Structure formats: C-alpha cells, structure tokens
C-alpha cells in the first residue's frame, strides 16, 4: 500500500499556484492604464486611474482569469503602477504575476535589480514567474542569465522561471542542458503566424509540460478585419464572433493559453464565452490547414540579428 504523507497546513500558508490552476485565457497588459508605448524608463507623471478600465480588469480576475503578463516597459512603468493599484484591490495570492526582464542585461546583477524594481513598484514580495522578454535582452551569455534566475527563485523572489521569444536551440539549451523546469513560454501564435509551431517550439513545450502562452492572438484585431472566408463561415455556423472562434481554436484544438488584452467588459464576456462551446473536428481541421501567404513569404530572424525577429513578426503585415 502506498502511504501518502499528509503535510499539515500551516496557518497563513499560501499554496503556490500550479500549472493546472491557470485559467485558459491570460490577461495581457500592454496598453493598460496608459498609452501603448514601450520603454524601460520612469514616467513619473501622475497616474490617473480610469475606473472603467480598472473595473474591467477586476471583472476579468473575478471571472477566473488569474494569469497576468506584465512589463515595466509598457508606458514607461505607468502600466505597472496601474497594476499595482489593481493588486491592492484583489487577493494577490490568487493572481499569478509574470514579470519580464528587459533590455539590457549588461551584468548578472542587472537581473536582480530589475526584478526588485518589479517587486517594489507592484508592492509584492515575490513574482510568480520571471522571464527574459527576449533572449537578446541578455548581453551576457544566456546560460548565465538563466542561472541567475534560478538563484532568484532559490531566494524566494520568484516562484518560477519562464521564457519568451527563444529559438528552438535556446529553448533546448535551457531545458535539456541547464535542466530548468520552465513554467511557461510566451510566444507568438495566431491563425496567420504559425511559425512557432512550424519550428517545433509548441510541440517541444507540450512534451516538456511547459504552458505555451500565445500573445497577440487576435493580431490586435487585424486578423478579423481580413474576414477570411473560413472564419466567416464558422462565425455563422456557431453564431460566434471571429475572435471567439480564434480563442476556442487556440484553447481546445491547440492546447494553448492565449494572452489577450481586453479592457472592455463586453470584450471580456465574449472572450470567456469562447470557452463555452466545442467545434466539430472538421472545422478545427480547416483552421489547422489555414496558411497566410503574406506571413509565409516572410522569414523570421530567429537569431534576432537585425531581420524580422519573432516578437516583431505579427506587425509586419496589415
Ligand atoms: N512576450 C512578448 O514578447 C509579448 C509580445 C506582445 C504581446 N505580449 C502580451 O500579449 C498581450 C496580448 O497582445 P496584444 O494586446 O498586443 O494583442 P491582442 O490581444 O491580439 O489584441 C488586443 C486588442 O484586442 C481587442 N479585443 C480583445 N478582446 C476582444 C474581443 N472579444 N472582440 C474585439 N476586440 C477584442 C482589445 O480591445 P479592448 O482593449 O478595447 O477591449 C485590444 O485592442 C499583450 O497585452 C502583452 O501582455 C507579449
């Protein structure tokens, strides 16, 4: 007989969130609380909280969306201050907070300095996961940056390590060579941009139980604006919007966790409702077969040496 040891629950002990606890659709934050600009700088201007936007964010959380992707570069830190206010209004222990280390890591100490900034600005004692926004954020060898992330986990500043925008060799190096158990991977994937799947990154993540969060799942609504016949046909068949068909496809057919930013309650409701139905197999197959020539004609610069890097890819075509 296998005897399972039952650990007594210490009062006030906060249970770490596990992969299985993560809601299928994550909250994106680019554009929250302030304009959609990017730079790691301190915009010290007064943050005026738009209560409608704040209520929408709280609404998402109350509906179960418990993973938030953040970056200090969003609006020069103003987005972080907006999220800090959000965190004060909810139960932090039920929110999974991903923070991104940005350009540039010139020396290993820069990583802890950036992570500390997140903790201070957000008013939290730990991040749930920490990742380098792009491998090129690291001017020191990538291995050294990831070893430092391991150290930061060991001293409790983050619960987990994640990654983003790596190429397949870099991903294998981190998982196979450094033996880092990545919690998640943030990568581009949408109906038109399937490059992360083509090169085997999505498959690799699945095999290694790494949650794949696909960013820009609607390509900021440009996908729907094309009115591709297959999407239009499915909207009629299932009486759903194009974005709902897309979310449903990512979650139920591809096993991904789309990250979308939505600050209108009607959009949040539509996104959540996208999980309430299943399509027929042949319809998922049609979406699997869909290819976008305009994107297929472009080449990803997986080494990020001045060509079209994966994180810029989705914005190359209208
Ligand atoms: N790791 C990385 O390199 C990386 C790169 C890019 C993005 N990201 C993350 O991924 C997140 C998502 O990307 P994104 O915000 O650029 O693009 P997106 O999620 O594809 O598009 C966001 C836009 O879609 C609208 N929207 C949301 N739900 C909708 C619905 N049901 N119907 C109609 N419109 C809807 C939003 O409008 P409203 O806001 O008006 O509701 C917003 O304008 C970002 O916020 C960021 O956190 C990470």
Beta-strand segment tally: 9
Overall mean confidence score, pLDDT: 94
Proportion of beta-strand residues: 5-15%
Low-pLDDT stretches: 1-12
Largest sheet: 5 strands, parallel
Task: Please identify the top-level CATH class.
Answer: Alpha Beta
Number of self-contained structural domains = 1
Q: What is the helix fraction of residues, given as a range? A: 25-40%
CA-atom Rg in angstroms: 20 Å
SSE succession:
EHEHEHEHEEHEHHEHHHEHHHH
Describe this entry's structure for a reader.
With 318 residues, the chain is α/β, with parallel strands linked by helices. The chain has one domain (21-313): NADP-dependent oxidoreductase domain (TIM Barrel, Alpha-Beta Barrel), CATH 3.20.20. It contains 14 helices and 9 strands. The chain has helices at 51-62, 78-88, 109-122, 142-154, 168-177, 195-198, 201-207, 222-225, 229-238, 242-253, 265-273, 281-289, 293-296, 310-313, and strands spanning 26-27, 67-71, 96-101, 127-132, 158-161, 163-164, 184-188, 211-215, 257-260. The strands form 2 sheets. A 5-stranded parallel β-sheet has the order 1-9-8-7-6. A 4-stranded parallel β-sheet has the order 2-3-4-5, with helices on one face. Helix 9 (229-238) crosses helix 10 (242-253). The N and C termini lie far apart (61 Å). Bound molecules: NADP nicotinamide-adenine-dinucleotide phosphate (NAP). The site of NADP nicotinamide-adenine-dinucleotide phosphate has 26 residues, from strand 9 and helix 11.
């Amino acid at each position: 007989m296998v005897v399972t040891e039952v650990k007594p629950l210490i009062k006030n002990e906060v249970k770490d969130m596990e992969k299985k606890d993560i809601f299928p659709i994550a909250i994106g934050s680019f554009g929250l609380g302030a304009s959609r600009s990017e730079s790691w700088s301190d915009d010290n201007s007064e943050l005026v909280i738009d209560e409608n936007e704040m209520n929408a964010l709280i609404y998402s959380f109350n509906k179960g969306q418990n993973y938030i992707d953040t970056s200090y570069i969003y609006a020069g830190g103003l987005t972080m201050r907006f999220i800090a206010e959000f965190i004060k209004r909810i139960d932090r222990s039920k929110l999974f907070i991903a923070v991104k280390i940005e350009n540039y890591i010139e020396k290993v100490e820069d990583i802890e300095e950036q992570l500390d900034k997140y903790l201070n600005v957000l008013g939290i004692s730990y991040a749930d996961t920490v990742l380098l926004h792009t491998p090129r954020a690291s001017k020191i060898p990538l291995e050294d940056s990831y070893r430092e992330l391991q150290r930061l986990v060991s001293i409790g500043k983050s619960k987990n390590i994640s990654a983003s925008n790596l190429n397949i060799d870099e991903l294998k190096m981190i998982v196979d060579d450094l033996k880092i158990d990545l919690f998640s991977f943030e990568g581009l994937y949408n109906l038109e941009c399937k490059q992360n799947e083509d090169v085997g990154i999505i498959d690799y993540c699945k095999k290694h139980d790494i949650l794949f969060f696909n960013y820009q799942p609607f390509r900021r609504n440009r996908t729907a604006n094309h009115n591709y016949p297959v999407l239009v046909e499915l909207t009629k068949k299932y009486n759903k919007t194009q974005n709902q068909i897309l979310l449903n496809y990512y979650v139920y057919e591809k096993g991904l966790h789309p990250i979308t930013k939505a600050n209108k309650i009607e959009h949040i409701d539509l996104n959540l409702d996208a999980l309430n139905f299943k399509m027929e197999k042949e319809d998922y197959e049609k979406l699997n077969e869909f290819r976008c020539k305009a994107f297929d004609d472009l080449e990803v610069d997986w080494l990020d040496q001045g060509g079209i890097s994966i994180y810029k890819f989705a914005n190359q075509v209208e």
